[in-house]
Design a protein that fits this description.
The protein is α+β, with helices and mostly antiparallel strands and 173 residues long. The chain has three helices and ten strands, in the order H-E-E-E-E-E-E-E-H-E-E-E-H. The strands form three sheets. Strands 1-2-3-4 form a four-stranded antiparallel sheet, with helices on both faces. A three-stranded antiparallel sheet has the order 5-6-7, with helices on one face. Strands 8-9-10 form a three-stranded antiparallel sheet.
């Protein structure tokens, strides 16, 4: 058995994805009784009917992913969502290096520009200009749950950073 391999997505799993027009599977990996599929537009987690969560097929736009990391031993992908939650997805051997590389590339392709700022009492916050599913651009403020957007000083600071991020891409604030 090869150590590194490109895994083919089973036909029934591919059909369950119900991909929108123009989308296609770029890489896939097995995760226990689930399959992970990286497409041009989204990350899919396809589980069995008994899988807990939002049902057997979960679709996450790349702009919903803050960051992800790959651990080769034991093989796993850790996904940090923009909501602040973290999900570990163990990977079945052989190590799906192509999947990990595709995951990284797709997340990065959704990031147009990002700027970090330290918010007093809340720590680092990133303001990112992201590309959505249809190519539209929008901003995200990604920080900890300690960021108080009701505080006028915090709101003013983040508004200023957002304006700079948008201006860097030639957009109006």
């Amino acid at each position: 058995m090869p150590i590194f391999s490109r895994r083919a997505l089973p036909d029934d799993v591919r059909r369950a994805l119900d991909l929108p027009a123009g989308d296609r599977v770029l890489a896939a990996a097995r995760s226990g009784d689930r399959w992970l599929a990286a497409t041009r537009l989204a990350l899919y987690v396809v589980g069995s009917a008994a899988d807990a969560g939002a049902g057997p097929v979960r679709r996450h736009l790349w702009s919903d992913v803050d960051r992800a990391s790959f651990a080769p031993e034991p093989p796993a992908i850790t996904v940090h969502w923009v909501t602040g939650s973290v999900e570990e997805l163990p990977l079945d051997p052989p190590v799906p290096v192509a999947f990990a590389q595709t995951l990284r590339e797709r997340i990065q392709s959704s990031v147009v520009h990002v700027e970090s700022v330290t918010v007093p009492g809340a720590g680092p916050v990133r303001v990112a200009l992201r590309r959505g599913e249809a190519g539209e651009l929008f901003t995200q403020v990604i920080g900890t749950g300690r960021v108080d957007l009701a505080d006028p000083a915090v709101a003013a600071l983040l508004d200023e950073v957002e304006a700079r991020v948008r201006a860097a891409a030639g957009l109006r604030a």
